[in-house]
Amino acid sequence: MNENRKMRRRGVSYAKWGYIFILPFFVSYIIFTLTPQIMTIYNSFFENYRNGLTQVGPNFVGLKNYVKLFTPDKSGTVDVLKYFGNTVLLWVMGAVPQILVALLLAVFFTSYRLNLKGQQFFKTVIYMPNLIMASAFSMLFFTLFSPVGPVNQVLLAAGWADKAIDFLSLKVPVRVLISLMNFLMWFGNTTILLMAGIQGIDQNMFEAAEIDGASSLQVFFRVTLPLLAPILVYTVITAMIGGLQMFDVPQILTNGKGTPDRASMTLVMYLNNYLQTSKNYGMAGAVSVVLFLVSSVLSLFVYNTLSRQYKEAPRKRDRI
Fold first, then answer.
1. Is residue 97 within 8 Å of residue 86, measured between CB atoms?
2. Domain ranges of the chain
3. Nearest Cα to 271, choosing from 86, 90, 81, 80?
4. Rounded distance between C-alpha atoms, residue 156 and residue 300, angstroms
5. What topology is assigned to 68-312 in CATH?
6. Model-level pTM greater than 0.90?
7. Chunked in runs of 10, what are the mean pLDDT values of the chain (320 residues)?
8. Helix axes of 79-110 and 267-277: crossing angle, nearest 10 degrees
9. Is 194 within 8 Å of 228 (Cβ atoms)?
10. Residue 282 in contact with residue 50, Cβ under 8 Å?
């Protein structure tokens, strides 16, 4: 008995070290993520803002901030719904081409049939826009498409326009520019993720499909896409969450005004206005909670929709 106790004492408890190694993550998560989230929800039930030099609150008001958030203004517009629509539209215009182009490039770069040369060079080039700060990207486009910018100079010199076009005062061009910037900044990162997913698929699956006489399209839709579903779901959900939190590009491009006619104002820009102008932490907290709930619901919907076929595949095989 004594020898067994000595052996146990000499042994190393790997489980203990495992908990020690993951402890910093949980500590940092609780301090920097969970606690601010709880405080945000807490503040959303209080009236707490600055009126000039006077600090009003904090006073408990219950759901008053949420009621005010969804109350129509004089023109009958509910601002939070309008800005949510803007955010979703800008995300869709940028994310759908981003995922389609990234998926196409990922298939090309990982294709053993094509065996493209200089892949490392092209991978580096398409990823480089992701390394540029969004603020710098926005300032670049602001300069290019300003009334005195290079784009207008080219249009005037070529005779395609009689006078300079103020692109940033037109609803469609502003939305297109914001979506284009988001597309250029993130399609390289999405391509790398999808390439990693395709390279993780067993090559024997593709060889078996080719032996069976499957065409390239059949291989893509019957083999690549179903087996890529987990990575594709992750990519779409992360892109959607990032799109709902869109801020820096439209903020800088429109100088924080969401022009024209608030057509490019996003939810986070709306939230930022409460924090900057009146220091209204109660309303800002309410907007944050609504954004969190919307992101959660949409993430669950996208996850269940895109992963349904992936989940049902094993059940179908078991029935057979």
1. no
2. 68-312
3. 80
4. 49
5. MetI-like fold (1.10.3720)
6. no
7. 55 74 92 92 89 81 91 87 93 92 88 74 81 84 90 90 89 92 90 88 83 83 86 90 90 86 90 85 92 91 78 52
8. 130
9. yes
10. no
